[in-house]
Amino acid sequence: MNWTGNLEPQVGAEVSSQAVCNCGPLIALAGINQLALLPHLFRKVAIPAVVYQELTGSRRFAATWHLFNQPWLEVVPVPEPCDAALASQIDPGEAAVLALACRLKNAEVLVDERKARRLAERLYGLRIVGTGGLLLRAKAAGLIPAVQPALANMRAHGYHLSDRLVEAICRAAGEGLA
Asked: Which has more confidence, 84 or 141?
């Protein structure tokens, strides 16, 4: 899968230039049939090869591996993390995401795992967006009508979201909890 660079943003959608994505947001969005939001929110979405291997090589996703073969999703080899200590603190996919984001400059990092988010922000000054933030952007761009049903659907499909996080996302969206 190579980036073609021909994807045009949707009318009314605020499109960021590029993102580097970890497994979590891809799994969450694929689980609720909203993976197609990403090319409407970003001109370019890259994933490190190790993340692609986690998604397509896992028995857990064997029946849905084709979901991650998208023309807008660029698989990028990443030889080393940003620094030697990084790989010992977070999993290899997250480390590769941060390493790639450090190289690309101005890329947003799409990751849900708390420790990786903290490292990305505090140590590397990277801009972080989680799946909840992606849903908020999608709602603001008119791509989805509400975030609460999407969050409930994510939970129903086994994606862990704390009550506090769901409440905060719904509050940010101007929605009450159903």
From this structure: 141
